[in-house]
Design a protein that fits this description.
Blueprint: H1 4-14, H2 30-42, H3 46-55, H4 64-97, E1 103-105, H5 107-113, E2 125-129, H6 135-144, E3 148-149, H7 156-161, E4 166-170, E5 173-178, H8 189-192, E6 194-198, E7 201-205, H9 208-228, H10 237-250, H11 256-265, H12 269-281, H13 289-295, H14 304-308, H15 316-323, H16 328-339, H17 346-357, H18 361-367, H19 379-412
Parallel strand pairs: 2-5
Antiparallel strand pairs: 1-2, 3-4, 4-5, 6-7
């Protein structure tokens, strides 16, 4: 079976990113093509590979079944993206009529901004950013346009306050509504935003600097999660290719000093360095040396295969702590702390955790139905021991449920 290094090298060659000697396509075996074909679709690069092979007249050199699947995926992507842009046009029109400021994020921007054709960049959903105070107006607008909110109406404001995205669905199209960019807590992305005509739509988008940082840190956040969970998923190559094309098209307009300064303000130098270093070293898109030097604080010099795939062994304890319902209370507050550190400080988080573990007398008396309130202090050890026992009892079932859900997610992708 083809090695992972050769496989990745060939995938980069399919995208025109090979820096060294190319792999002879005629030397790839039928068995290897099965593995490579699976990876092409996993990394969401099938339309790009189809276009490149067609332009270079190499379609006849690959298995007929794979060539057929690539062609089908190319046209399916074109059709799907056309539908998404139509729905986006309706949303943007209604948002303007309802005076709801809105920034379009990620795929719906990149497909029409940096790719030669929007048929080349698969989109699984739409990502839209609004201001927190507009959440109710935006929700009512989307519902009126036929979108179904995945959150119960009464919980909308609470979910918004906790910094979570809100999902919508219309047919088979998904939409994520954001009220903040958690990767850029200290950036004035609203003030830096710009208007562009993309895919015949006039839309508000992030500045190129904020867009670049958002893409890098979004990958890095997913990478951290994958490593934490023991390599149960992959980082799609298309996400790194987004960065390559953004740099190719707007390199001369990017203010690197702003990126360095914002990275330090957000304490995100490690994430920016890790991803930009891979782009520079493995994908051939040059990043100024002084930029990498300024950002390299704790950033890792990870090879591209360590970015795309993680071979870490799964930590059952970590899976339990993340998946167990008892920890969601703390996970949500940690998300607030990470998204808005200037408001939800470390001191606030420590105070919150301490208050949750050791609540006041009134709560303890009511929670444990204490008949003699003066004895409430003796119930704190009981509270902690009970919680630990519940954790231990739940470990096997939560690990099993979580592993099944992750395996199902991988098979679907």
């Amino acid at each position: 079976m083809i090695s992972r290094e050769i496989e990745t090298k060939f995938l980069l060659q399919c995208l025109g990113l090979t820096k060294n000697e190319e792999i002879n396509i005629n030397e790839i075996t039928e068995k290897d093509w099965i593995q490579i074909g699976r990876r092409i679709f996993q990394h969401k690069i099938a339309p790009l590979v189809y276009q490149n092979f067609s332009q270079n007249k190499k379609l006849s050199q690959i298995p007929e079944v794979l060539a057929h699947d690539l062609r089908l995926e190319y046209f399916q992507c074109s059709l799907n993206n056309t539908r998404i842009y139509y729905e986006l046009s309706e949303i943007l029109k209604s948002a303007k009529e309802n005076n709801i400021p809105m920034i379009v994020l990620k795929g719906a921007v990149l497909a029409g901004l940096v790719y030669p054709s929007y048929a080349l960049r698969p989109m699984e959903d739409m990502d839209l950013l609004i201001k927190p105070e507009d959440i109710r107006k935006a929700n009512d607008m989307l519902v009126q346009l036929g979108w179904r909110c995945k959150v119960r109406d009464g919980l909308l404001e609470m979910i918004n306050q906790q910094g979570y995205d809100i999902g919508y669905v219309k047919g088979d199209i998904l939409l994520d509504l954001h009220t903040a960019i958690r990767e850029l807590p200290s950036s004035d992305y609203w003030g830096n935003s710009q208007r562009k005509n993309i895919a015949s739509l006039n839309m508000q988008i992030l500045s190129y600097e904020d867009m670049l940082m958002h893409l890098c840190l979004h990958i890095y956040r997913h990478l951290q999660t994958i490593i934490l969970l023991g390599g149960l998923s992959i980082i799609e190559l298309i996400k790194l290719y987004d960065i390559v094309l953004l740099l190719r098209k707007f390199r001369d307009e990017i203010n690197w000093d702003y990126i360095i300064r914002t990275g330090k303000d957000n304490n995100s130098e490690d994430g920016l360095y890790t991803i930009l270093n891979v782009v520079d070293r493995d994908l051939g898109e040059h990043i100024p040396n002084d930029v990498l030097k300024e950002l390299k604080i704790d950033g890792a010099d990870l090879p591209i295969n360590n970015i795309l795939y993680s071979d870490c062994k799964i930590s059952k304890l970590v899976i339990f702590l993340i998946s167990n319902k008892l920890t969601k209370h703390f996970a949500m507050t940690m998300a607030l702390h990470n998204a808005f550190p200037e408001k939800y400080t470390t001191f606030w988080f420590i105070k919150f955790v301490f208050g949750s573990l050791f609540p006041n007398k009134e709560y303890m008396v009511k929670r444990y139905n204490i008949k003699h309130p003066s004895f409430f202090g003796f119930y704190y050890p009981y509270r902690l021991i009970t919680a630990i026992w519940m954790f231990l009892k739940a470990i096997p079932s939560y690990i099993q449920v979580y592993r099944r859900s992750m395996e199902r997610h991988i098979s679907e992708n």
